[in-house]
Amino acid sequence: MNLISQPLDFEIEYPEADGKPMSESDQTRDYLIYGVEALRRYFSDRSDVYVSGNLFIYYRQGVRDAVVSPDVFVIFGVENKQRRSYKAWEEGGKLPDFVMEITSKTTQYQDEEEKLHKYRNLGVTEYFQYVPTGDYLQPPLKGSRLVEGEYQAIAPTSAINDSPIFYSNVLGLELHLLEGELRFFDPQTGEKLLDFDETEQARQAAEQARQDAIPRLLGMGLSAEQVALALGLSTEEVTNHPIER
Questions:
Q1: pTM score over 0.90
Q2: Which of 43, 127, 142, 224 suits 117 as a labelling partner, its CA being 20 to 30 A distant?
């Protein structure tokens, strides 16, 4: 896709919203949020990876209609910072490397026809579709990878309980269906990328485990300073811990 990057002699306003609701259902919204937040946390230590979703991406300067708004997308090679909209000509011409659309019956044609062709022309390397309701796409997750300018279906690498597992070359992650629910997995660790509630539960569990370890370590003869260092706590937290006698 040819990007116009030369300065314009007139000012053009690029809208940041279209006035439409973010999604048409709770499920669509929930998986959009999961995809963006889980991938954002996964790439949080990368200053050159931008993860977002439901954001206007303008790909041709001076043309307000040259815009897409993927549900979830990842762009490599640009600054990891907050944006109100994304203008490719201000970002070195970089466009999404990975896109996922949370599809439904009402958006099926747009996602499978119009957006597929547009993303292909924009050079989006991988394009995934997920249908939370599973009412028309079986299995409810599929992906395509750009090969010599055309999309080719991504074959599952394996399956768990007849649910396919797809590998994303772009993300270096696996996409699983756990009882029909989409989850990203890190194949290096085998760990699932958590949603917000799961992340909070894991944080609370880890904190509780540290607190529970204080009396055990003190009972082994370690000093308060040694326990604090081992658990990543302050000495005051250790000495003020209520130890049952």
A1: no
A2: 43
